[in-house]
Structure formats: C-alpha cells, structure tokens
User: What shape does this take?
Amino acid sequence: MGHGTLIRTAVFCLIWAPIPVFAADGSEASSLPDAPSTVMVRQQFVESSQQRKPLVVVPPEQEYVPLTSHEKFQNYLHVAKSPYTFGKTAVDTAVSHLRFGGEHYGDGWSGYGKRYGVSLAARETSLFVGGYLFPTVLHQDPRFFYSNKTSIKGRAVDAASRVLFTKHDSGKTVFNSSYMFSNMVNSSLTNVWDLRGEHSVKNTLGAIGYNYVSDAVGNIWREFWPDLHRKIHRHEPGPVQAVERKMKQWNPKKGRYEYPKKDVD
Assistant: This one.
C-alpha cells in the first residue's frame, strides 16, 4: 500500500470517525449485441453523464482500461456525493423505519432523520472501504459495468450479478470480494451504531443479506436508467430541457465544471 493510499485513508478516518457519536447524542452505505440502438443509448448516456461524473460507470463495449489508485479514489468521491447514494440510503432507511418502528429513534420525521444519519455514516464508510481501500489493495475495479446483452432478462441478470463479480485490474472477471468486505463493514457498523441496542451476529448477517438483495436491485435500476432517462427526456417540457442545457458539465480534460458551448446553427 503506497503513501498516497495511507494518507487518503487517514484523512477519511478523521472526517467520518465522529459521525456515529453525533448521531447517538442526537437520539436520546462479449459479443456484439444484436440491437446496437440499445447499446448506443447507454453509450451516449455514459459519455454525457461521465462529463459530470467520470470514472463511475463503464459503457458496454468500451475496451477495458484499469483504474489507477488515484482514479479509484476519485471514483469513491464521486459515488460518495452522488444523488444515487443519498437516495438509496433514504429508501433503505425508510424500509428499516417501517420494519422496526420508532423505538429508540422516535416517531415521525425526527426519528427517521436520526436513523438516516446512522445509515448514511455506515454507507459512506462502506463506500470508502469497498470503493477505494479494498479495490486498491486487492487490485479490483469498483466501477459498474453495463451489460452488453440486449434482452431484458439478460441485462437484469448481468446487473444483479455485479455484487458477486467484478473485474480484476488485469481484466479478468473475479469474485467481488471488495463489495463483500464493504457489505460486512456497512452491516457491522449499522448494527453497532444502532440505537436500539440489539447488537447480535444474527442481526449483522441479516443486514448483509438485505444489502446484497438491495444493491442487486439498485444495480438493475442503474442498468435500465439510461433507457428510462431517454424516454423521460423526450417528453420533458421545453423549459426543463432548456435548464438542463444550461447546467454546468464536467470537463475531464480541464478537471473542472464548465457551461456547455452553445451550438452553432
């Protein structure tokens, strides 16, 4: 492990270590396809989205190029602050709140907010472990790889299997041990920081199983989102499309956000 990895790990620990304390005090993470048009939709979506969020997802037919340690850290930063991360945490927290009620957290939005804080702290920690630390140490790729299949079933199976398999930096498909370890960290921390005080191996194993299913479903959503986005975008009102065109986009060559250049008719 290089000095850069150690420094980033130390900085991460300093930032996130106090979070559970604050949460507790306030109580009481191939072959060519038969239908190129489907692949083109995802290719174009990835190219446009990665102008703002580079290094996060890989198009279905892009030649594999491994990430450097620095690029894996940049990938972690993008995923950690993405709306997808906060949104998925909100959904998982809602499921837990409905399942266990407001015991020790309180009812209503106040109790939900406290539970959300604990869940978000655990998820962000697991993202660092599974999105940067272990992928760097184990030489695995933390990115999401779009399927090169065209059938709905085939794409869904490929997407769901990303929690079990990923690519080694050599390009070979390997067991996704980085995700497994991050899932264990997420589940263990959620169990330890749980204000209900029910800390047991059974609860941790149950959380690990839930995360596998939840993240597999989340991957299926990521796989089909470009197609849904295209259909939604076609029916967006003109003012909404105009606002989207004026939003800043990430320029990977300059390493900064810029307003897109106006089209010249």
